[in-house]
Amino acid sequence: MILLHGLGRSRTSMAGIGKYLEKHGGYRIVNVGYASTRKDLDAHASALASVVSYLEGVEQIHFVAHSLGNIVIRRYLAGQADDAVGSSPDSCLGRIVMLAPPNGGAKMAEVFGQNGLFEVIAGASGKQLASRWGEIERTLAIPTGQFGIIAGSVKGNPVLDGEDDLIVSVEETRLSGARDFLTVPVTHSFIMDDVQVKASTLRFLQHGFFVAENRRQPIAPPQPSRAATIR
Known about the structure:
By secondary structure, this protein is of the alpha/beta class.
């Protein structure tokens, strides 16, 4: 299993959930660190591809990521599926649990991106989220395997619409095709350390749901328009 941290964090931030999954799920953990504030998404995705390439003999690779780490995974997956050269996603790809992912961009990054200090602190990746999201989103894959999303909901940021985790709104975390979706009353920065989140993450990795099969909250992929189906 591969763990990826978020923007401005380090692998230490994912150590707690990693130990939990190792102890209670028996997973072998690879907690990946990457230069989240010093390089761009392509560089992060390339670094992740390099890590995966060294996992020889592994039959299945699950992912658990926080915030920006999920965007890195989606960029990595897009790079693996290239029809032009006949490549496709790794057959070893297992389930993915996304913790507080900015799948729909991040309004907070956009707001603070107008401040020059933001770029200094958040670096190239932060700038991409802030001012180039429309361009970046087109380079991201939607996982073809099973993935679930856990969003924080404390409704405490007046800048964001609806419920939020102080950094990312619940709506911004959503991604079509998710097998299950769960909101928990925790903030963005500490969602990976929440007891309920840890247990729910393990449950999804093992069974494909956060609470129970009959309580799944999938996010349906968009339906093609009638006009698009008529030839």
